Amino acid sequence: MAMISLINIPCPHCLRENAVLEVEGETPQSLKGTFALMAICRSCSGALIAEVDPQHEILNHRAGFFNYAKKTQRDVLLDCRKHYSNEWGRVLRTYPTAIIHEAPDATPERVAKFFVEAKENFERGNYETCGGLCRKVMDLATKQMAVAEDISAWKLQKRIEKLKEKGVITKEMYEWADIVRLDGNEQTHSEDEFDPQSAKAVLAFTETFLLYAFTLPEMVREKRKEAEKDVA
Q1: Which DSSP letter does residue 93 get?
Q2: pLDDT band for position 55 (50/70/90)?
Q3: Dihedral of the CA atoms 222, 104, 172, 200 (nearest 10)?
Q4: pLDDT tens for residues 145-160?
Q5: Which domains does the chain have, with CATH numbers?
Q6: Distance separating alpha carbons of residues 10 and 105, to the nearest angstrom
Q7: Three-class SS of residue 94?
Q8: Phi/psi at 18 (5° precision)
């Protein structure tokens, strides 16, 4: 039997990437000329509504996605990427919307990758993993900030101490980095459970560090460039 599925979207409930969201029902929205499709995540059974602008001629005559799939014996895959249309239709919006996690602006790509993973694990309730990833973020971030090759090769504790001595980070940034380092170490070696409040605090410390380490300096550089252009 042909199926109708939504693709290229994380489940807004369990946050599974590229979740299998199978459409179970549809309602034509006559005033809009669209269809409201109700889909179920096969991982967590969470429900999602997608508003779809039909592209196919048959669908435009309100035959419906299910009738079209049944008649043609073809699976209908509706791509949920923004502004992306395929043979059958364009997904205009979904309810609820999955939370898209991002790192602070100007964060180096690899550092940002693990920070996003830390946030995703926090949302999933994987607090120990979140703490360990925050420590990894701090390790990679301080290597990016190292002003000499020998510093980047040192252990995290010695590296952040050296960065503070050289004035690359402030005393407050050093303390934030050390908190994340210690909590990350604890999660790696301790059998104690890492509670949500501790994970949330470590995540906040990590994000603040990235803002001061990468976002604010980049903002200053951009402002200076603008000032130089105005003078020229």
Answers
A1: E
A2: confident
A3: 170
A4: 887 777 777 888 888 9
A5: 4-95 (no CATH), 109-231 (1.20.120.330)
A6: 22
A7: strand
A8: 50, 50
Distance in angstroms (rounded) separating the CA atoms of residues 47 and 27: 15
Are the C-beta atoms of 156 and 134 separated by less than 8 Å? no
CA gap 42, 23 in Å, rounded: 10
CA–CA dist 168, 160 (Å, integer): 9
If 0-12 CB within 10 Å is exposed, 13-18 middle and 19+ buried, where does residue 226 land? exposed
Q: 229 CB contacts (<8 Å, ≥6 apart)?
A: none
Query: Which candidate, 194, 192, 180, 206, places its Cα nearest to that of 126?
Result: 194
CB-CB contact of 180 with 206 (8 Å): yes
How many residues comprise the chain? 232
- Tokens at 193, concatenated: 């459970």
C-beta of residue 81 within 8 angstroms of C-beta of residue 50: no
Give pTM, 2 decimals. Answer: 0.67
* Cα–Cα distance for residue pair 145/155, rounded to 1 Å: 14
Q: Which helix (H) or strand (E) holds 21?
A: strand 21-29
What's the sign of the alpha-carbon dihedral 174, 175, 178, 179?
Answer: negative
Mark out the alpha helices in the chain (DSSP H runs): 57-60, 65-72, 109-123, 127-145, 149-153, 156-165, 171-189, 196-210, 216-231
